Structures are given as C-alpha cells and as structure tokens.
Amino acid sequence: MARIDGTSAFLARGLRTLALAVIVLFFLFPILWIVLMSFQTNEQILRIPPSLLFDPTIVNYRALISGKLVTAAGQLDLPFMRNLGNSVLLSSVSVLLSLVLGVPAAYAFARFRFRLGENIAFTLLSFRFAPPLLVLLPLSLYFQDLGLANTYTGLVWVYQLICLPLILWIVRGYFEDASPDIEYAYRVDGHSWWRAFTRIAIPLAGPGIAAAGLLAFIFAWNNFVFALILASADKQPVTVGALAFVTASGIQYGQIAAAIVLSILPTLALALYAQRWLVEGLSLGAVKG
Amino acid sequence: MSADPGLAVRALSVTFGRNHLLRGIDFDVAEGETLVLFGPSGVGKTVLLRAIAGLEPAARGEVRVAGRDVSMRGPEARGIGMAFQNFALYPHMSARDNIASPLRARGVSRAEIERRVGAVADLLRIGHVLGHAPKELSNGQKQRTALARALVGEPRVLLLDDPLRNVDAKLRYEMRLEFPRLLRTAGAATLYVTQDYREAMALGDRVAILLDGRIAQTAPPETVYEHPDSVAVARLFGDPPINLLPCRPTESTGGVQVAAAGLRLTLPAAQHAIGRDCLLGLRPEAIAVHAAALPGAAPAQLNATTPLHERLVVLLRAGGEEVVASVLGEVPVPGSAVWISADPAQATLFDAGSGARIAAPAPVREAA
To answer: What domains does chain A contain, in order, with CATH numbers?
Structure first.
C-alpha cells in the first residue's frame, strides 16, 4: 500500500517536472535561440539546416560596442551604445518622474474623497486606452511649436502617458489595501501627516510601488512609436535604433540578436533587484483581519 | 486648579451626506474616570472615538482635553492616547519601536525612551517580546503592545476602541481583571468602547448608552441595569435579555397594580400610568421558579433550560407569554409544570408608546 502510494507520488512529481520543463522550454527557447544567434555570424545563422554546434564569435558584440558595422557593402556607423544609453536615460527619468507625481496622487485617490476625484483618476487611466498613433500627429505638431521635438524633456513628458497611469492605478490599490488605522495610530502618536505618509504609508505600499515602477520601466523601455516620431537619431532608444540593422546589404541577424541580448540585460537586472520587495508581504500581520 | 474634566465633548455631530450618524453628543469624563461607551454595532461608537481623536473630518462640535479646546487641532496635537480595535501596529517596526513612537514624536531622549518603554512593557508583561515584529506576536501580545503604545505617552485622555474584541475568551477574562488596575495607573480620562455588557459592568465607572446618534442614558452600570431609561436601553443592556411583558396598570393602594404573564405585582409607579398600555420589564434574575405552588406565584410551563456561567437560564411559558428566568440551583426537568414569582422591587414599568421608563417617585433629570 505504502509502496504504491510512494510510486504514484514519484510518478506525479516526475510528470509535474516534465510539464514544467516543457513550459519553460516553450517560453525560453526563443530567448535561448537569440543568445545562440548573437554568437554566430550571419552565414552561420542562415545555413540550412540550422545547427546547435558552431564556433562562437564575439564579432557581433564587438561591432555593437565599437559602433562600426562592417558589411559586404562597406562600413556603417552604428549608434547602438548611444541608443542603449538613451533608453536607460529616458526610461529611468520617466519612471522616477512618474513615481514622484504618481505615488502622492495615488495616495490622495486612495484616502480622500473629493469632487471629480474618480473622473480625474479615470481620465488618467484612459490615456492607456487611446492608441498612441491617434495622439501622435497633433502631439508632433505641438512639439514642433513648443520646441520640444527631439529633446529628452519632450520624450520624458510623452513617456508620462505610459508610466503615470500605470503607477497611479497599481499603487492606489496597494494604498487602499493598507488599513488607514495604521496611519491614524501614527498621527495620534503625535506625528504630522507628512511623516505618517513617508514613514507608514509608503513603506507599507513598498512592494506595490516597486512592482508598478518595474512594470512602468519595462513599458517605457519597450516603447517604439513615440520615439520613432518625436526623436531623431541621437535621441532614439534601442527599440528605434534597431531599425539600423536592416541595411542595404541585408538584415544583420547576428547584430540584431546581440543587440536584443544587450537591451534585455538592464530590465533583467532591475527585475532581479526589485524582486526582493515584490515578494515581501504587504501588511505583515499587523492588523487583525 | 479649575475643575475642568479630563475630557469634555459638546454638541458633537457627525454627518455623512444625509446620514446623521451622531447628533449633538454631550458628555464629560473626569480624570481617572472610565466612561464605557456602549451601543449596538454600527451605531457610531468608533466614529465618535475617531471624532474625539481628530481623525474624522466630518465631525462638528467641541472637544476639550483638560480644559483646552482641541477641536481645531490635528490628531497629533490633541494629547490623546488611542488603542484601535484592530490593533493597528506598524508592521515594519518592532514592538519596541511601536511603543516608542509617541515618545519619538515628542523628541524624548533615547535613554528616557528606553526607560519608559521598559516600564510600560513590564506593566503589561510584554518585556520579553519587545524585539519581535508584530507578525511574530500572538493576538494577546499584539493587543498589549497596542495598549502600551497608547499608555506610554501618559496622555490626559485615553480612547480604547473595543480592545478585547479580537482576543480569545481566556485572555478577555484576564484583561477584564487587569484593566481597572491599568487604568488607575494611567490616571487618564478613559473612554472605553464595548459591545459586551459584562465588560461595561466590570470596567465602567459610568456607562453611556449610544443609540440612534444620541446618548440615551449615562449612569453607573448598576443603575443602567436596574433602572434603564427606556425599553431600547433595557433590551440592549443585559444578557439574557430583559422580559418585556405587555400590561395595563390599574389603581391600587400604594401605587399601581400590574398583571402580566399570570403575575400580579404592586408597583410604586406614577399614577399617570394607570389605564395606559405599558411594558413590564423584568430582568431574568428577578423571576424565581418554584416546583410547588406558593401564594402569589403564577403557574407556568417549563420549556427548556440552558446553563450560562453559574446560573441556569430557563425558558418558560406563562399566561400566554414567553418568559426567560435566570436562576441559581436546580429546576424541574423541561416539560414540567412550575410556578413563578417576581420581585416587584426589581420590576420596571415602561410606556408602550414612547418606550420611556415610568419612574416611581420621578427623580429629577436634567433635560438634554
């Protein structure tokens, strides 16, 4: 009896492991393939049949980092590292600005009832429904007039359309989940509302703020169309800069793969770093549920 | 020194939209006194406490702490200590830091904080868990930590929002015994919210009954129990609940005569009760159950019994009415025929229309 139970438990565990392996393979294989591609030359990539065995080369990475792309048609300047720098700058400044604006706003929407409060919150959310192309034409005209076209300031401003609603709505939920009694208790202890906000409300919503910030960073990082229209080469992020790999002499698959690997790294590092706060419980059992 | 009460509340009202939750609340709590705020759930007890603490923006009226009007001040400047029903501990701080919070807010020196936190922790017997985070504390320890935080700043006014609601029965009894000593040590004007009338009886110097947005009666707990001002107060305060038997008093020498549930009682009630529809209020302990007929006793059917603490609650049917008695000692088995009698001194007569008590020699009462 016990042996049969043991066998079936072993079988169940084996099947579960197998299922997980299939899922992981399904989702991670494209990324693995890209990593492999990034260490091959275009000729190796395009041979038929494709092979997992090859002589790894770092020529793609060298081209990206040095900024010189050598093709059959000649040498080409590649501003990839500058694009990567632009992506880091635009995404992080946008997320920081959104956090500074969005977290206090989220707190206000969560804790206070005021005239048109819900309407304002919904209007901010509705920025996420509108297709970006709908607002891009008028926006680019305004930006020309205001002198914001092709500036970091202008791009960071437009990126608020991506980051701010996300942060506002996610963080608002976390503030609403925390019992206001905890802040009230801190006020009664003799602390000002500002201290109650910074010492109690923000730490308790910490995991939510980290999650929202990370998500906003990824959305900003992946944005393509705003930067395509509103920025020229020297201000463009990697998503737009990758277009340069489609050259007159063909598509540079090796460099594209290497560029993808390099552009995944910052978000990956940030996600691993923020994970610590993401998994921490919200209320930690201070309030009797 | 002036005789300012520790806490004075005047014309305090809270209105949410069209819902007038509290309408003109007035009361005083003397320093060192414990006033129990008693009422059914949802009546606004917690809102009243929050209004006094300055946490209720919709509150109107005056709150005075030790003679000082604090109505326009924020919660941090009122000099109040408060324990919340859900404890409301700061989850990211240790128990020590939780308790130290009111002292930190006032910039008390490090050594002094250490000393006072230690003293209050000893008083509440949580000295051994000061280093723990709230999630590592048992419910009883959480509750004591929350109390310690309210007490450590030696506030003039202490607001306790049903502090024993979320702790288990054993701890509730322990704390009920401990509270009088604790509150005496604190010496603050204490407002204690509860829904448990036994807690109110045990802890209150006086009890204020909150009903329909107003304070229906303020009196020492025994007075509220024995002479409730209205049917509503009588129903609310007491477990098992009071018997309310319809009757119409008739004239009698030395008062009025009342017949209900087969009982005939002569009460020294006011003459104007004669001929009106009334309710005879009889606490379950005021009814005695007899196995044999006695002069003046009424026949009854014993339907069921259930033990409650040291007493036996007995469900009876007499003269077409359900009657609940609470007796000490043995009673016949359910289904038996028994006789009941009642002590007229413990009976209260209410007007059936208004629900107000019909006082015997009408005591002078202040108009609200």
So the answer is: 2-77 (no CATH), 80-279 (1.10.3720.10)
